Amino acid sequence: MHFDFRLEVGGVLKSWAVPKGPSTDPRDKRLAVPTEDHPMEYRGYEGVIGGGQYGAGTVIVWDTGTYQPLGKNGEATDADSFAKALAAGHASFWLDGPKLQGGYTLTRFRGGEGTGHEDDGEEAWLLVKRADRKADRHGTHTPDPRRARSAQSGRTLNQVAQEDGEQDSAHHMINTRNGGGKDRKGEATKSSAKARATGRARAGTATARGGGT
Fold it and tell me: Which residues, 6+ apart, have CB-to-CB distance to 73 below 8 Å?
């Protein structure tokens, strides 16, 4: 099982596979491997994707909310600046969901344009919690996919799988959306997050999956 994390950028959901899931502890550096962009319609999907298809497995919306893009000094910024920061390989944002809250940073450390390391293997990023008032250095830092419940329906992976006649794989989603105005909020379907950007709503998701690709 693993989580996928998605943010709405440029009208699509930019996606990263996060094997261990997001952490609330700034000391944890979580591997995040880019996957293909997803259409916005996917952010609220729950169900079972059949074997042999991309992303095969059971999917739940683990968390949902909004995000606020942040600048270099932690100040609120706009969607265009955030897209440029992602392209450059380092972007920060504030999540506001029922489960994930506070500042996070995505940093590319291998592969990708502009890094100087395009030939050193698969592109890879780190998803790290920022040290702010929402950080948690005690207790449980990582969500357990086996116990995770959808923020959208309240169901577990097993319940979704049983209803669809499948029990052999799991895939969680976190959905975050970015809406207009100053605050950026997000929906988490454990594949993406919803963020608020100037001019129009933007979404993102984070997913945890198992038994699929």
Answer: none
15 in Cβ contact with 34 (< 8 Å): yes
Enclosing domain of residue 64: 2-131+142-210
65 within domain boundaries = yes
Assess if residue 193 is contained within a domain: yes
pLDDT in tens, 194-209: 332 222 334 555 555 5
> How many separate helices (H) and strands (E) can be counted in the chain?
2, 12
| Cα–Cα distance, 127 to 153 (Å, whole number) | 26
69, 184 Cβ separation under 8 angstroms: yes
| Residue 24 to residue 140: CA distance in whole angstroms | 8
pTM comes to 0.77
Structural domain count of the chain: 1
How far, in Å, are 36, 81, 201 from residue 184 at the CA level? 24, 14, 9
Is residue 97 assigned to a domain?
yes
Give me the percent of the chain exceeding a pLDDT of 70.
71
Pairing of strands 201-210, 47-49: unpaired
φ, ψ of residue 35 to 5 degrees: the values are -125, 180
Amino acid in position 184:
R
Kindly calculate the radius of gyration of the chain based on its CA atoms and give it in whole angstroms: 16
Position 137 in a domain: no
Q: Which residues are CB-contacts of 39 (< 8 A; sequence separation ≥ 6)?
A: 12, 13
102 vs 27: CA distance, rounded Å:
15
Place of tokens 């830092």: 141
